[in-house]
Amino acid sequence: MKIIVIGASGTIGKAVSSHLAARHEIVSVGANSGDVRADIRDSAQVRRLFEQAGKVDAVVVAAGAVHFGPLAELGPEQFQVGIASKLMGQVNVAQAAAEWLSDGGSITLISGIVAEQPIRFGASASMVNSAVEGFVRGAAIELPRGLRINAVSPTLLEESLDAYGPYFYGFEPTSADRVALAYSRSVEGAQTGQVYRVW
């Protein structure tokens, strides 16, 4: 298969690319690096990405920013970070991908454990991750041509303990390689409308 990996230079993106590259052709995408450059917050850039990459069999996203902070200090600008990037950025990708995927192709988005297991300072992240999962379930019943869409919901990564560990006391971390297996299950399996939890 020919697979677009968006966020390919990130911790999860590298693991996913490495895992899938053993069997498939990878087109790496990032805002500042990769075979193709695109900021997923900009729907025009996303459309150009697919025009450059051409017909593909799968699209996976391992990218999207959210703002962490006390609820009392979250204003529209802080909420908008996650809405524009992790939510609408991935929606932009999914909608554009539907036009460029081969019949039976797949889209895999990323949510996160705080959709179901909230943490202090993570209200915006919980909101956005839950919305991503809702979009996946809703889109799954409307996609044409046998196209599939799923989400991967990872917990805290071992590789990210230094940066995010203080937000996730009591959570058992997992490896990026284990998260990559869930992406493989989505891309190379047959299910749709699923959230693969890697907790």
UniProtKB/TrEMBL annotation:
It comes from the Bacteria. Keywords: Oxidoreductase. GO terms for molecular function: oxidoreductase activity. The keyword Oxidoreductase applies. Pfam families: adh_short_C2. The keyword Oxidoreductase applies. Belongs to the short-chain dehydrogenases/reductases (SDR) family. This is Short chain dehydrogenase. The lineage of its organism: Bacteria, Pseudomonadati, Pseudomonadota, Betaproteobacteria, Burkholderiales.
